[in-house]
Amino acid sequence: MGIVSGYDEAYIINDFQINNFSEKEKKFIFPFIKAKNCKRYYIENGSYYLFVDDIKTEEDLKEYPKIYERLLKDKERLNKRYMPNNKKWWNWATIRNKQLFEKSLNKPKIFVPCMDRSLKARYSYTDEKYFGSGDVLIIINKNGLKEDLKYVLAWLNSKIINDWYRIKGSHTGHRIRYTQSYVSQIPLKLIDWNNKDEVEIYNKVLEKVRTIISEKENKELEKEIDDLLERLIK
Q1: What number of helices (H) and strands (E) belong to the chain?
Q2: Residue 180 maps to which CATH number?
């Protein structure tokens, strides 16, 4: 799970507003991925947020006038959030896995909405510097997996896994819940690197995934990937 503000409207910064802030203030503006940015295979845009939890006192916050002015107008609403007693009114409500996000900023990663009504999973790949908001789950390669994360992406978005997760995964009403516990149980077909046929299929899958990410959607290639993965497990 990502980082939760408790009241996004106070923190979100539109692209055209960024230049209203000084250079030292821009250091507190971070790009985030939300569930709405997750498409199948790729990320569509991103959202910029103020994140000033490292500022300890209100006097220190005033040293960044544009930020202070922006947050102050929502102070009353921010104070109404359910917050631990040690939190300041300008703090985000919940900080989860911030160190994990910081370590993965320069690495490839996959985001997926934590809750989704879509009939097909929306695992989304990016190698850009993004944090994850509270409504997405992040997946990174931290165990030295030899397979490229784009191959993992294809597997997660495949019909094989989509069907599997609808039986084995978590559900809330008509929505699918993607949680660390359930997603970590998803079976992954590892490549036998001594098997030329498997390596050939793997390379074809990677090529098609790269094209989908580049073109921003390609239903025909998604079907071809499904066919290749079906061959891989037979």
Answers
A1: 11, 11
A2: 3.90.220
The pLDDT value given to residue 119: 87
Residue 87 lies in a domain: no
Q: What is the mean pLDDT of residues 178-197?
A: 94
Residue 81 domain flag: no
Quick: pLDDT tens for 36-76.
Answer: 999 999 999 888 999 998 899 999 999 999 999 999 999 99
The answer as to whether 34 is a domain residue is: no
Residue of 39, 217, 182, 209 whose CA lies nearest to 226: 209
Domains contained in the chain, number = 1
Stretch (H or E) spanning 113 = strand 109-113
On whether residue 145 sits in a domain, the answer given is yes
Structure tokens at 198: 């498997």
The pTM score is 0.83
